[in-house]
Design goal:
This protein has 783 residues and is mainly beta. It is built from five helices and 42 strands. The chain has a 22-stranded antiparallel β-barrel. A five-stranded mixed sheet has the order 1-7-8-5-6, with no helix packed on it. The protein is globular. The relative contact order is 0.15.
Length: 783
């Protein structure tokens, strides 16, 4: 059952009372400072570089529950829209990211993600991994968002529309133990522990953490998402040499949500059309929630060294990533693979043999006790109307003679990936005619091998459960993909005193190979090299102290994904890499009380590679799976401006606000993506206002985000209404409350305060329902 809001409030009150009492006792033992704290800096104005960039703050982290996905924290930054189908972000299937009309979703990977500067290995559902697979929220330092041109050294071949760099915290010099417990609505719980070792060897420090979390789906509370995470980091520093190492292991079982149409949302905005119980009719039970699951394990680690000399710097790292898992669906039939003969028992039902490869001879819906296929009564009309508009007589048990037994499948798509790569960067600091001059150059190389195979299992008894025979009756395919990526870059920055000017270039060499492990004649390969990609920028101070002008230009590139090789329907000789030209022009101001920035941008995106997915509110084609097919469909023109400001009104109060105007339209392409139409899923207007307060041991904040109208479809006929969502947090932090405890903190969060019902993420022209009001309490102690 859903944890009630009242229970959370009562829990918060009790823990606050305990904390206050402990604080009083602590004062008797050790006098703690009770002077008014100045509000923590909440500025999100970025680094002094020639492109738009922002970073998250502690206040943005506090707005989210401790068990929330790391992605949710960046949602208030200018130009950024994060939508997660699950209230805690525990379903990657329904997670989308939109920046300047560029998307991360089921069908598009156009935004780069890096972990401590290291490539994440793509973000797609079929074997990809977003930042939440690598980092526990409690171990997240900050997220640096480059909305457009980004740094020339950024390690991603997906970054058409910007880069998100998620950084992990470093070890501390002092030893200590942090324990954290989170309790929230929808049976949410998270246990977290991190131990800081202090100095273990000369100039060597480390931490290790472990966590376990779970929550049910918010729609019906019948499907559970579970996550276990282990991580560790080591830091060694000795003069000019520093070495870091990080490793994490993440094991998740995610309950998926289904996308719906605008018409379905209008009828019932609280239900995504997945069901909570088995009816015994496989056609209806194909949308049983516990049959829609994602299982993933990710192991990731790197070792990095950095050497700083008087006028040069050299750094490099080696990293490894292993991914394995599967995605589940429950097709309402068995595939007829064996061709057992007319009126014969089907071996898919009666034997434990696994058929390999080949194609289906048809579908089996109902059988008799001997396993022989039955046909519906002639002339019978099905009364089934749900889901997908209803079914034919072959699916309806009422169209068969008494004793007919329904059959169904449990389909697994298995994913595996191994990535091994290295990065190396060199910087030289010199003079050119008495002007500071910096030369940077570097290389990124990655070799990854990904395997994907699909098997079909018969449901043991489709009348009562989704339990399935562990031995598959059909292994449909088995494929291997090999991708080699090499990226070189070089850049020169010269400081003319009146301005810093940089000019750079980079190039990608990407080779893809697809191997059919059942049929070598279907092996494929393709090159996806980039042209030489130019970048340039300028940063110039103005006569006004603290105000600087910046401008940047970059040619960005997204290599063809290996997922393209999965689809026989994708014409490889007609597919080209995606490219984009990004221009940023802006002003950035920084002072003690006010920080602000405004950026105008213009993006020309060409060769847009569109994903044609089979699952939609109109039905699922299970035989081709969730990976669909791909085709280039013209491009996108995006322009607009982003503005953000942080104002420290007093020592106790701070305000942050941002506004984004974005105009993203299709250019060229197919008739289904009409030229001049607004890119579906992209919001023309985004606005945020947040107030944060801190006094003594207490803190609180309220943030509100407005998302303007969007289109569900590329033809711009189905509008998604604008929505406004507010998040609230409040807490108390106490230093040395009692002997033996360094600090305690209690934090209460309430997301979607007004319980607004809205359509959130969009993929393939249908959308997920946004999560409802959700309360959570986090109690943290440091020893």
């Amino acid at each position: 059952m859903k944890n009630t809001l009242s229970l959370n409030l009562i829990t918060a009150a009790l823990l606050t009372s305990f904390s206050a009492s402990s604080f009083a006792q602590g004062n008797a033992v050790e006098n703690s400072s009770v002077e008014d704290n100045t509000i923590e800096e909440v500025t999100v104005v970025g680094q002094s570089v020639s492109f738009a960039n922002n970073a998250t703050t502690q206040e943005m982290s506090k707005q989210q529950a401790a068990m929330t996905s790391a992605l949710a924290i960046i949602d208030n930054l200018p130009g950024v829209l994060i939508n997660e189908g699950d209230t805690f972000g525990s379903d990657d299937w329904s997670t989308t990211v939109s920046i300047r009309g560029f998307q991360l979703s089921l069908d598009e990977q156009q935004i780069g993600i890096t972990i401590d500067g290291i490539a994440n290995g793509n973000s797609n559902y079929g074997g990809g991994a977003k930042a939440n697979r690598y980092i526990d929220t409690e171990n997240l330092g900050t997220v640096q968002v480059s909305q457009g041109t980004a740094d020339v050294a950024s390690r991603s071949n997906e970054a058409l529309g910007g880069t998100l760099n998620f950084t992990t915290i470093d070890p501390t010099k002092d030893a200590g133990l942090t324990l954290s417990f989170t309790n929230g609505d929808f049976e949410a719980q998270k246990y977290f522990a991190r131990y800081q070792t202090g100095e273990v060897f000369d100039n060597t420090y480390a931490w290790v953490s472990i966590s376990s979390s779970s929550n049910s789906d918010w729609v019906q509370q019948v499907a559970n998402s579970e996550r276990d995470h282990i991580a560790a980091k080591v830091l060694h520093s000795n003069g000019p040499l520093s070495v870091k190492a990080y490793a994490s292991y993440d094991d998740v079982k995610e309950a998926n949500y289904q996308r719906i149409s605008t018409e379905q949302f209008a009828i019932d905005p609280t239900w995504d059309r997945l069901t909570d119980s088995i009816t015994g009719t496989p056609y209806v039970d194909q949308v049983f929630r516990n049959g829609w699951q994602t299982l993933r394990e990710n192991t990731f680690g790197y070792v990095q060294a950095n050497y700083e000399a008087r006028n040069w710097e050299l750094s490099g790292n080696v990293y490894y990533h292993h991914n394995e898992g599967r995605g589940d669906w429950i097709p309402p039939y068995l595939e007829d693979i064996s061709a057992d003969g007319f009126n014969q028992p089907h071996s898919e039902i009666t034997s434990d043999k696994s058929y390999t490869g080949g194609s289906s001879n048809g579908r089996i819906y109902f059988v008799d006790k001997a396993g022989r296929q039955l046909s519906p009564i002639s002339g019978c009309e099905s009364s089934i109307t749900f889901p997908y508009g209803g079914a034919g007589a072959e699916y309806d048990p009422a169209c068969y003679q008494a004793g007919a037994i329904p059959v169904g499948s449990y389909r697994h798509t298995h994913y595996g990936k191994d990535r091994l790569g290295f990065n190396a960067d060199f910087s030289f600091y010199g003079k050119l005619a008495d002007m500071d001059n910096t030369v940077r150059a570097g290389i990124w190389y990655e070799d990854y091998q990904r395997q994907e195979w699909r098997d079909w299992h018969k449901r043991i008894d489709a009348r009562v459960s989704v339990n399935f025979d562990s031995t598959p009756y059909w292994i449909q395919y088995n494929r291997e993909f090999n991708v080699d990526t090499t990226m070189f870059y070089i850049e020169n920055e010269l400081d003319f005193k009146v301005a810093r000017v940089r000019v750079g270039a980079k190039k990608f060499l990407v080779d893809l190979e697809g191997i059919n492990l059942f049929d070598g004649s279907k092996n494929t390969s393709i090159e996806s090299d980039s042209e030489t990609l130019l970048s340039a920028g300028i940063v110039a101070p103005t006569p006004i102290e603290g105000l600087e002008l910046f401008a940047g230009y970059a040619e960005n590139f997204a290599a063809i994904k290996d997922t393209v090789l999965e689809r026989d329907a994708s014409a490889l000789d007609e597919i080209e890499p995606e490219t984009a030209e990004n221009i940023d022009l802006g002003l950035r101001y920084s002072s003690d009380k006010l920080n602000a920035s405004v950026t105008y941008y213009d993006v020309t995106f060409e060769n847009r590679l569109n994903f044609i997915a089979p699952d939609s509110p109109d039905g699922i084609n299970y035989s081709i799976g969730n990976n669909g097919s791909f085709e280039n469909v013209g491009g996108i023109e995006s322009n607009g401006f982003e503005a953000s400001a942080t104002w420290y009104m007093t020592n106790e109060w701070g305000m942050y606000t941002s506004y984004t105007y974005n105009d993203s339209t299709y250019t060229g392409g197919l008739s289904t993506f009409p030229q001049g139409n607004t890119v579906f899923g992209s919001a023309e207007n985004l606005a945020v206002i947040s107030f944060d307060w801190s006094k003594g041991n207490y803190f609180a904040g309220l943030s509100t985000k407005w998302v303007g109208d969007r289109w569900m479809d590329a033809t711009n006929t189905k509008k998604i209404d604008a929505y406004t969502v507010s998040d609230f947090y409040a807490g108390v932090a106490i230093d040395a409350p009692i002997s033996g405890i360094k600090a305690m903190e209690l934090r209460f969060t309430l997301n979607n305060v007004t319980d607004k019902s809205y359509l959130g993420g969009v993929a393939n022209q249908s959308g997920w329902i946004g999560a409802p009001r959700t309360a959570a309490v986090n109690f943290k102690a440091e020893f």
